[in-house]
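Below sits the subject:
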Amino acid sequence: MLFLHAQADEESRDALDKALSRLKTTYNMKSGSILGLLPGAELDTVRRQMVEEANLIVTILSADYTSEEWLYGELTALACARHGSERTRVAAVYAREAFGVTDGFVKLGIPVLPAGDIPVSDMNPDKAYQKIAEALQKIIEGML
């Protein structure tokens, strides 16, 4: 599982990753972050490779996500192009409110979690992450 997210959404990614711990154990999955790279690595190349190799890509959406061209532009396009291909799925987590951030995902049939047009920031986080975990479990089971 690969998380695509802005640096400002690191706290949301940590909370989501923690909430998914049982799911990761059940399906023997590991998670990684597009930001978790070693200094000195050729960032663009390594990031593209990470997206190309991931089976489940989880985008964490916010205004900060859309403001990062390298993330919202190139890597999101690459992830979305892979969605639905053999053994690759993308899911979007609407973390913080941002105008139009979910539109492209909805048009491509990519699930926006936890509740479509309601961001996690406007919900009880525990309930939101529970709904996200349940939805991701269905996605994973559909890939098996």
In short: The beta strands are 2-4, 32-33, 56-61, 89-94, 112-113.
